[in-house]
Amino acid sequence: MARLRRGTAEIIVEAELIQKLQRARATGTPLKVKLGLDPTAPDLHLGHTVVLQKLRDFQDLGHQIIIIIGDFTGMIGDPSGRSKTRPALTLEDTRKNGQSYYEQATKILSPEHVRMEYNSGWLAKMNFSDVIVLASKYTVARMLERDEFTQRFKAGEPISVHEFLYPLAQAMDSVAIEADIELGGTDQKFNLLVGRDIQREYGLEPQAILTMPLLVGTDGVEKMSKSYDNYIGISESPREIYGKTLRIPDGMIYTYFELASDVSNAELAGIKLQLGDAATNPRDIKRKLARTFVTMYHNAAEAEKAEAEFDRIFVDKDVPDVIEEFRLDAGMNEQTIVGLIALAKLASSKSEARRLVEQGGVSINGDRVTDLNAVVPSMKEFILKVGKRRFLKIVHA
């Protein structure tokens, strides 16, 4: 339980979970631990891995992990955590994204002990009579207890009837596989509770629930999301994972270790003591965090390499930790370093930019630019230095 409680926002109901675990141990029967994924996008970031790390805990304790890919529910659109429903996807999109999710999720989970199901396997077989029977088992009043629905109803915004069917459809996933436990983010709490109620209606023992916090992104403000550009993707290069990790606020270091890393509870306790010691430089702990993530999603050798590369560019060349970004959009067709310097207003003109290059005052990732016709690197992002103290992080949009 110490392991399962780590980082968990809420356990509903803890006494029931303990009872299920004791029964599983006594009978030698693994519990069915469910995670439902609504495959709206194919790329996973550290925010997604919070719940996957908890699934790994259950897996290591000998239980059966069942990932439900919502290929059918993804065509409805889930309003969880939003003021309006998510756009519906085609079946082809949900299958494609779902497979990508699975491939990335098994970077954390052991694939030999993960079962993946598509919920169209049972939901697509339900006829209209089945849907009416299901809908009769839940009231509109209970549906309006959901914050998103309440807010939209009060604001006079439309709520489509099909949105009420989403939590019921997700609940049927728990019925179909007879889930013992379901995991999800705190924004999924309502749906998970509906699952407990509907299981009871179909004569099953209700699932225990573990909700996990939503990981705040590298900006330290919004939840991690690609739309906020504050994410660390688990399929990104070692260099990007390392560099992005070092951007997180110092106050988030422990949370990232607790929720998104695979360090042991004993090591986590030591990190907490270190961070509480005034003699500790938080940057040292953050570097350890960055190495941990690169090792998890690549390997230890790549982590050392990424750190050495970071030191070469930032530490040895005295580059500041916080640098202004300049997004190089697709419409900006400037192809030379000289032109980029002028475009980014690090020089008043291309003539001045050329003069700076000739004087040896321009470098890319710490390497001096000597060719006046040098082209802009194709890498996703790089550090452009002009003069002694003018730095700009160039990001290809």
Explain how this protein is built.
The chain is of the alpha/beta class and 397 residues long. It has three domains: 2-212, Rossmann fold (3-Layer(aba) Sandwich), CATH 3.40.50; 226-315, Orthogonal Bundle (Tyrosyl-Transfer RNA Synthetase); 325-396, Roll (Structural Genomics Hypothetical 15.5 Kd Protein In mrcA-pckA Intergenic Region, Chain A), CATH 3.10.290. 45% of the residues lie in helices and 13% in strands. It has helices spanning 2-5, 14-27, 46-60, 91-105, 120-123, 128-135, 140-143, 147-154, 161-177, 189-201, 238-245, 253-260, 265-275, 282-297, 300-315, 337-343, 350-358; strands at 10-12, 32-37, 64-69, 114-118, 181-185, 208-212, 325-328, 362-364, 367-368, 381-386, 390-396. The strands form two sheets. Strands 1-6-5-2-3-4 form a six-stranded mixed β-sheet, with helices on both faces. Strands 7-11-10-8-9 form a five-stranded mixed β-sheet, with no helix packed on it. Helix 12 packs parallel to helix 14. The chain is elongated, with a radius of gyration of 25 Å. The protein starts with a helix and ends with a strand.
Explain the layout of strands and helices:
Elements: H1 2-5, E1 10-12, H2 14-27, E2 32-37, H3 46-60, E3 64-69, H4 91-105, E4 114-118, H5 120-123, H6 128-135, H7 140-143, H8 147-154, H9 161-177, E5 181-185, H10 189-201, E6 208-212, H11 238-245, H12 253-260, H13 265-275, H14 282-297, H15 300-315, E7 325-328, H16 337-343, H17 350-358, E8 362-364, E9 367-368, E10 381-386, E11 390-396
Parallel strand pairs: 2-3, 2-5, 3-4, 5-6, 7-11
Antiparallel strand pairs: 1-6, 8-9, 8-10, 10-11
Helix pairs in contact: 9-10, 11-14, 11-15, 12-14, 14-15, 16-17
